[in-house]
Amino acid sequence: MNTDSDELAMPHFPEPSAELARAEKLILGIPDYPAPGIIFRDIMPLLADGRALRATVDALIAPFLGTFDVIAGLEARGFLLASAAAYSTGTGLLPIRKAGKLPRPAASVGYELEYGVAEVEAHDDLPAGSRVLLIDDVLATGGTLEAARELLEMLGYTVAGTAVLFEINGLGGRAAVADPNLHTVFTSGV
Asked: Cα separation of 95 and 102, whole Å?
C-alpha cells in the first residue's frame, strides 16, 4: 500500500471567498421588472447551484452564530434562504408573510416599496424574548426589512441581527433599517 501524502490528502474545495465570488456571478440583473426603471435581482440561478447556495447561506449566518434561537425569513425568496439557514443551524423558522396569507396573524405592519405599498404579518408561536435572526434576499429601500423588524419587536421578540444576501447601494436601505448588526453578503450600485 502506498502511503504517499498526495494520495492521502483531502479533496480540494475552493476557498470560501472564491466560492462566494462565483456565487455572486450567478445573480442576474433583469431590467424593468416588475416595473419600468427597476432592476430585479434574480437569485434563482444561485439557488439552483448547491455549492453557491451553501457558501451564501454560510456567509449570511457566520457573524451571528450562537446569538439567535430562530431564523425569520421574508416572503418569498427570503423564505428559501432562511429555511436553509435554519436547517444548517438546527434552529426553527418563523415565516414573515405578505398580508392575507396567514390563517391566524398575530400582528401586521405596513410599509412602502419602491413601486407600491404592502403589509407583512407573522404568527406569535415563539416564546417572548426569543432571539431572532432576520434574513431576506435583497435590501433596496429598506421598507420590507424595517417593517419586519418592527413586527418582530411588536410580537415581543429580540432582533439578534439582520442578514441580507444582496444590498443595492444608493437607495437608502441601510439607513432605513438602522440595524448596527446589518450584514450583507454582496453589494452593488443602483
From this structure: 10
